Amino acid sequence: MHIAHIEDWAVAYVNSTVLDYKLGPPPPPPTFRTDDAPRRMEAPGRPSELDLVGRTRRSVSRAQMANPRKRAQLVHTFWHHELQAAELMCWAILAFPTAPEAFRRGLLGICLDEIRHMALYRGHLERLGFALGDFPVRDWFWQRVASCETPLQFTALMGMGLEGGNLDHTKRFESWFGEVGDQHGAELQRVVGDEEVAHVQFAMKWFATWSKGTDFESWRRELVAPLTPSLMKGACLDETRRRRAGFSAEFLAALRAWDAQ
């Protein structure tokens, strides 16, 4: 297909079944179309190297982190999360053509960040002696995020929810990698976690613009069913990163207390 506009680039990226293209697409064009209709892509193209399954094994436990294969399985999962995030930023660019250009251009920037994170994870996977495709993957993000009907729902689920939760998860896994002497893995988690702060700030900004605030209940109501706040946080909240991202103390208290309700 001829890639003349950012929308064309987004379609090509989501649809591609070539692993090298997913890892390193060409630079996007500079401009959007001005007359595009909404396009809601149902599923991404998947390279043959990836074993797509309906369910994956249980997550790696802290006690298993000394095993390089288990760490590689975890890194592979993180890589696939970044792939889905990159694709879903493209999905939102296409699904919401009437959203402000600044919002859509921000999505493109985040997409490119996620692709860069993919390269970091791939490098560490290979450092551990494994390759992309050595572990099965599940397109769970696609099964949920692609059901968002509005930009507000997308920022609530993808930005404030899943990426917000990743602030907690990267902090935990930084510690886990460090405990077993995998300092490169620990540093990678720190870098990704720090860079995700800006992604969450972006979502917070636009959520506040469209909903006139970022209080917990306004956010919770925008999560697509059957998702709840329980899936949008780690076992321990990373207060430092979350406050930098813009979450209030009241929001974090409500998020922390959610499972106790």
Question: Could you explain the architecture of this structure?
Answer:
The chain is an all-alpha fold. It contains ten helices and no strands. The protein has a single domain (6-26, 48-260), classed as Ferritin (Up-down Bundle). It is globular. It starts with 5 loop residues before the first helix and ends with a helix.
Task: Give keywords.
261 residues; single chain; mainly alpha; Ferritin; globular
Question: Could you write a compact summary of the structure shown?
Answer:
With 261 residues, the chain is mainly alpha-helical.
What is the strand and helix layout of this fold?
Elements lengths: L5 H10 L3 H5 L44 H28 L5 H27 L12 H6 L5 H29 L3 H29 L4 H7 L16 H7 L3 H9 L4
Helix pairs in contact: 1-3, 3-4, 4-7, 6-7, 7-9
Encode the helix/strand succession as letters: HHHHHHHHHH
CATH fold title: Ferritin
Radius of gyration: 18 Å
Whole-number count of domains: 1
What's the CATH class label? Mainly Alpha
Alpha-carbon distance between the termini? Answer: 51 Å
Indicate the percent of residues in helices.
55-70%
Q: Please tell me the CATH architecture by its name.
A: Up-down Bundle
How many helical elements? 10
What's the β-strand tally?
0
What proportion of the residues form beta strands (DSSP E)?
under 5%
Would you tell me the structural class of the helices and strands? Answer: mainly alpha
The dominant shape is: globular
Uncertain residue ranges: none
Largest sheet composition: none
What's the overall average pLDDT, rounded?
96
